[in-house]
TrEMBL record:
Designated name of the protein: Aspartate aminotransferase family protein
Keywords linked to the UniProt accession: Aminotransferase, Pyridoxal phosphate, Transferase
Family label: Belongs to the class-III pyridoxal-phosphate-dependent aminotransferase family.
Names of the cofactor(s): pyridoxal 5'-phosphate
Organism field: Teichococcus oryzae
GO biological process: biotin biosynthetic process
Keyword Transit peptide part of the UniProt annotation: no
A Pfam family matched in the record: Aminotran_3
InterPro entries linked to this entry: Aminotrans_3 (IPR005814), Aminotrans_3_PPA_site (IPR049704), PyrdxlP-dep_Trfase (IPR015424), PyrdxlP-dep_Trfase_major (IPR015421), PyrdxlP-dep_Trfase_small (IPR015422)
Superkingdom in the source lineage: Bacteria
């Protein structure tokens, strides 16, 4: 009999872990070994309820047989085929299925492998669009403070998280930022869209006046900023951004890596918030995270300007070896079928009131300074310990995990985004466990 020798589970030296305190983790490892439905199990058999959909991505829950079987079937037929000057049917089918649920007018799909790649792709498309229209002077890109658009140099430059930037020196040139919209003083403990802050969109006019409208290519924002602590846009804010972009010929890009595929109770956040961008990025829920995949959707106008406005030959000098990978395409088709058959956005809408009340029931606990929620996502902000930012939330994270619930923290903010198949008993368990952990961290 063949024997396969594998490293012991605690042999952790080789893997340099991303966004992780490697020294702490490797002395206190928390290893997930199995997943199904709403649950993970650790390597030693402890059950852990998933309060974060993995990393905002397993919207249909874990271990979905339909997705697994689609990947297995495709792997047996064809494991890989290039999409440079060639193609394979399943990538085109996946794009057509995706176009069916995208916001109206966004039906051209460029495949990537992650949200980071989607962000950089969207920025390149925006620049290429203006150049194709004879406006190559439009090279400036506008992001927003506390925005997150992945870790490529494009997305990182337009993004607004200091910790993601300070180690790496100069970013892309010709980038500026809008202010963030987070305002605890006026909007604390908001359910849904906060009332105050729409006027912050007018800061785009200030940047237009500073740089000149004809130098700005695009504005990129998240409809709801997830990774910096669930920052929900104020009423009217995105509509105002849309109006200013239209006025000055600036493209509006929505990063929907987190808000796409049902998280806010609609297929995409653009629908929930009533504003359609020119370009939309996505990843995570596109394949339920079973195989890495991302995508960028654009309007026909953008596609036609670049493709039909170029000389013969390659129109966009950009792409990835794994763009439209056969296994990812199979996973996407199966995921989109589940998304439709089980009406995952509808399930999120139905659960939203119960989830919202459970989240806001934590108001009044020690050190809770704000709670904000929309769809099936919420942020609970804690006061920081003097001289030890993020330490309180880290203690809450570790206590919750040890008590059988997975949460996510960013700074001293707790973010919850359970799979969209969550039921009331799951919501109850998440918030009961979290309540105990917050009290313990007081």
């Amino acid at each position: 009999m063949n024997q396969i020798n594998v490293p012991r589970p605690n042999d952790l030296d080789a893997f340099w872990m991303p966004f992780t305190d490697n020294r702490y983790f490797k002395s206190h490892p928390r290893l997930l070994a199995r997943a199904e439905g709403m649950l993970y199990w650790t390597a030693d058999g402890q059950e852990v309820l998933d309060g974060t959909a993995g990393l905002w991505c397993c919207n249909a829950g874990h271990g979905r047989r339909e997705i697994t079987e689609a990947i297995q079937k495709q792997a047996a037929v064809m494991d890989f085929a290039p999409t440079f000057q060639l193609g394979h049917p399943i990538a085109f089918e996946a794009a057509a299925r995706l176009a069916e649920i995208l916001p109206q007018g966004l039906d051209r799909v460029f495949y990537t492998n992650s949200g980071s790649e989607s962000a950089d792709t969207a920025l390149k498309i925006a620049l290429a669009y203006h150049k194709a229209r004879g406006q190559s002077q439009r090279v400036r890109l506008i992001g927003r403070e506390r925005g997150y658009h992945g870790v490529g140099f494009g997305g990182m430059s337009v993004g607004g998280i200091g910790g993601n930037r300070k180690q790496f020196g100069a970013m892309l040139p010709y980038v500026d930022h809008l202010p963030h919209t987070h305002d605890i003083g006026r909007n604390a403990f908001t359910k849904g869209l906060p009332e105050h802050g729409a006027e912050l969109a007018d800061r785009l006019e200030d940047l237009v006046a500073l740089h000149g409208a004809d130098t700005i290519a695009a504005v990129m924002v998240e409809p709801m900023a997830g990774s910096t602590g669930v920052l929900v846009p104020p009423v009217g804010y995105l509509k105002r951004l849309r109006e200013i972009c239209d006025k000055h010929g600036i493209l509006l890009i929505f990063d929907e890596v987190i808000t796409g595929f049902g998280r806010l109770g609609t297929n995409f956040g653009a629908e929930r918030l009533g504003v359609t961008p020119d370009i939309l990025t996505m990843a995570k829920g596109l394949t339920n995270a079973a195989v890495p995949m991302g995508a960028v959707a654009t309007s026909d106008g953008i596609y036609d300007a670049i493709v039909n406005g170029s000389p013969d030959g390659i129109e966009l000098f950009h792409g990835y070896t794994y763009s439209g990978h056969p296994l990812a395409a199979a996973a996407s088709i199966a995921t989109l079928a589940l998304h439709k058959a089980e009406d995952l956005p509808g399930r999120a809408r139905a659960m939203e009131p119960y989830f919202e009340e459970a989240a806001h029931s934590l108001r009044g606990l020690p050190n809770v300074v704000d709670i904000r929620s929309i769809g099936l996502v919420c942020g609970i902000e804690l006061s920081s310990r003097p001289g030890k930012p993020a330490a309180r939330a880290v203690d809450v994270f570790r206590k919750c995990f040890d008590d059988g619930v997975l949460i996510r923290t960013t700074g001293d903010i707790i973010a919850l985004s359970p799979p969209l198949i969550a039921e009331k008993q799951h919501v109850d368990r998440i918030f009961e466990t979290l309540s105990g952990a917050i009290k313990a961290a007081a």
